[in-house]
Design a protein that fits this description.
- There is one protein chain.
- The N terminus is likely disordered.
- Helix 2 crosses helix 4 and helix 9 crosses helix 19.
- The two termini are 30 Å apart.
- This protein has 23 helices and 4 strands.
- Strand 2 and strand 3 form a beta hairpin.
- It has a 4-stranded antiparallel β-sheet with strand order 1-2-3-4.
- With 488 residues, the chain is mostly helical.
Amino acid sequence: MFLEHQETMPQTSVVFSSILGPSCSGQVQPGMGERGGGAGSSGDLVFQDGRLISGSLEALMERLVPTVDYYPDRTYIFTFLLSSRVFIPPHDLLGRVGQICLEQRQQLEAGSDKARLKSFSAKIVQLLKEWTEAFPYDFQDEKAMAELKAITHRVTQCDEENGTVKKAIAQMTQSLLLSLAARSQLQELREKLRSPAMDKGPILKAKPPAAQKDILGVCCDPLVLAQQLTHIELERVNSIHPEDLMQIVSHMDSRDKHRCRGDLIKTYSLEAYDNWFNCLSMLVATEVCRVVKKKHRTRMLEFFIDVARECFNIGNFNSMMAIISGMNLSPVARLKKTWSKVKTAKFDVLEHHMDPSSNFCNYRTALQGATQRSQMANSSREKIVIPVFNLFVKDIYFLHKIHTNHLPNGHINFKKFWDISRQIHEFMTWTQVECPFEKDKKIQSYLLTAPIYSEEALFIASFESEGPENHMEKDSWKTLRTTLLNRA
């Protein structure tokens, strides 16, 4: 089940250093035209040092909608649209936005100022454009699409002369439909390929024929394999969207769950990415345990240690953690005679980086270094940052759990959602990096389709390579052999 395979996860939230700059702080931007007043309490909005920290849902919605003299900060648009789904379904929010727009439009029409009306209409289209670009999958819902059409129909009524607003709406709609079509095709493909992570490969056939291909027969260069793993990581992580990550909050919030449960999109992307981590860990264990000769097993372990180190150097922490996890699985870790031949200095360094103590302090330091490198990078190669996904998810979850959604006065705790949004925006920035490495279909095919042993098969292979050494292992081996005989 999602999130359950890692037991040593952080128990407190650590907010990553932001790469978004001051514009994502929630502070009032000069010249933006503050809607509803300045610092302190402004109606149902509360500011602290120029930063919006709380407000009623109604006031926060009104702040989202432009006026002739005001346009919301883009970071506010992203944060509110991202977090609002915890409290109100996107189609209901869109309907409320449409109502506010209609009220403002009627006031402008009463003033008979066509120039101001046209300026207001252009800003509404710009807001809708930002919404459809940042969260296109909100519009998979027919209700949301109907609300969008209703708003754009009203807006175009003031654009009878040169049609600039109509053109902008047509372009926005076309881009939205293309995004939705691409998402639909991806989901159909995922449904066809979807299978349980542990349903691959031989179940109890512990020892393969000696001539069977292994990873070293496909790729013996640790750097090349690390690059191909990075290709796979970036392809998978690129299919994760901000609203998918926000469901970590929506799924786990018992207070508001009843309001949005029916509108939740199935998190195929999150599950697929989580399954990839599990499969890679099990593939590493399988490749080691199925080797008959100790000398070859030693070489296999040293190879994966080098691959993990190259992943670390690239900034691919998720693959690195998966490889280390695979080597730390009991069927692999118990092979003491094999490990005694391995030069473990490099492995010790890797384990130091992934030491869970102090809330994975060493890993977070390395991640911060990779983030800084990414910020100053001149090439795609230096921009790569692939965090350990389970730790990222846990950070979002605990940030959600230690801060309430609502304050005692009933206001939404918007400061909490600034922090969540900042982390998600940072993650989304990393997912947009184009992989600079040449794709090797042969290697990737092996990584994605090679048979993976079940946990039971791994133990059988492990005990056949190195017999049980204590009473507990002897009992386990006896039970496994009895199971084998009964199945035969």
